[in-house]
Amino acid sequence: MFMIFLTLFFCCGVCESGEGDLGYSLNIGNAIDVFANYGDLSQVTQVVSADYEEDSSETVEPFREKNIRVFENVTSIESPGDPMVALNIQLCETFEELLAAYFRNFRIEGTEQPWKAFLGDWIYDEIMRTFGIEYETQTDNCCYVLVKLSKTHETVQMDSTKKIRVKEYVERAIEKLDVNDTAAVRRFMKSYGTHYIDSYVTGNFIYQVFKYKRSGFHLLKTYVKRGRRRSSTDNLRFYFSSYFLKQVGDIRMASGNKRIEEWARDNLRDSQYLFSRPSLLRLYYNAKLANKLNDMLDNGALLGLSLKILHPLFKDRYKREKYAEIVENDMKLWEVNA
């Protein structure tokens, strides 16, 4: 049974920590310097597919960013994922809305556009290819529909009910820190981070972008608003036909698994009129194919991530607020310039 949701829409500094406090995988409560890879976090997190071929024998790690253990006694709450996939369709008026929809389960405190931390340094052409659609130089006034089929492996949340202790070497660094010296604060960020990992979701998902003529998009939007999406699968297919579409994107895997991408292109072909092309909508009305894909999806991607500013490090209220202010101001500047 599928659920359909339709919506409109590190540090490079030197610190006193031991080697055991540094890591590159998902460690709940650990701190990262968001600015170390801001605009290109997708290179150290598995969140989008890639155009290059990877060694299929290597295990894909969802998270590979340097992080540091700044808390002494962090505990977490872990929840297993749903064994079945969920189909999600999101309607986006603009390309920026598409990016926001894709990264809607990613939150970075201090920014309103988390997607810029992952793709902000990429050129438009590269982002388009990542989403499986062709780059067009002219302004075409198009809309987009994002179709995702995801499978959650696990959700991990930092346990906020437990009182946490700060590592001694971090406390000593905070005691020496002059928060009125912006340069000193930024050096502290590079050594001890700006945010900590509050929660994350791992699993995998397959996605496809449909590029719409604006007139066709508005007809689809009206159809959805009237609540007719469950009346007939043929009706839904009709609104995804060439009559309304300007471009059908390639099917991509968040983990970058080329073998599954190729399977999807070969097996999820939808025939309409004189055309035959890959479409994730086939999974909506073909349970056999959906179950097959469900068995293939692994735990190679990051489905969600929540990063919070390192408020808990600071016992002194003035230092805590001043540090957060500098982080947030820098976040806004980087967001504007990305």
Task: Give a concise summary.
By secondary structure, the protein is α+β, with helices and mostly antiparallel strands. The protein contains ten helices and 14 strands. It has one domain (4-337).
Write the layout of secondary structure elements.
Elements: E1 4-7, E2 22-23, E3 31-32, E4 67-68, E5 76-80, E6 86-92, H1 95-102, E7 106-108, H2 115-119, H3 124-130, E8 143-158, H4 168-176, H5 182-192, E9 195-212, H6 214-225, H7 233-238, E10 245-248, E11 252-253, H8 258-267, E12 269-272, E13 275-278, H9 287-296, E14 301-309, H10 317-337
Parallel strand pairs: 1-6, 7-14
Antiparallel strand pairs: 2-4, 3-9, 5-8, 6-8, 8-9, 9-10, 9-11, 9-14, 12-13
Protein name: Jg17366 protein
InterPro entries: MACPF
Pfam family, one: MACPF
